[in-house]
Amino acid sequence: MFMYFLRGSLPWQGLKADTLKERYQKIGDTKRATPIDVLCDGHPEEFAKYLRYVRRLDFFETPDYDHLRRLFQDLFYFKGYVDDGEFDWTGKTMSTPVGSLQTGHEVVVSPNRERHTPANKRVC
């Protein structure tokens, strides 16, 4: 999921097939065939380490959550970020694909609002 958020798309998105079963088969095949290094290309190595770790887990095996958390905490500090206790989006301007978004004390209106609002619901 986080690779989708980082990349904006995944190699198995939009695959076509004659039946739903075939489509799911193609998706599974593409997921298995896509090397982690390709999936994480251009992003910090910690993302690839995370995926390699979780792919090795047995179905009922409990992950070492402290280890996984440390991967990203160490990356956070290595990149020079400071933990100020606030999320980046708190009180800041954000573009959204649809509608308004309240962040802190500001109201942010998406530049795409008109495109996602039915004509009979638009306010002039």
From TrEMBL:
The organism's superkingdom is given as Eukaryota
What is the first-listed, main subcellular location in coarse terms?
Answer: cytoplasm
Keyword match Cell wall biogenesis/degradation:
no
Keyword terms? Cytoplasm, Kinase, Serine/threonine-protein kinase, Transferase
Q: Which Gene3D superfamilies match?
A: Transferase(Phosphotransferase) domain 1
The entry's localization annotation reads: Cytoplasm
The residue ranges of the Casein kinase 1 gamma C-terminal domain are 92-121
Report the protein name in the record. Answer: Casein kinase 1 gamma C-terminal domain-containing protein
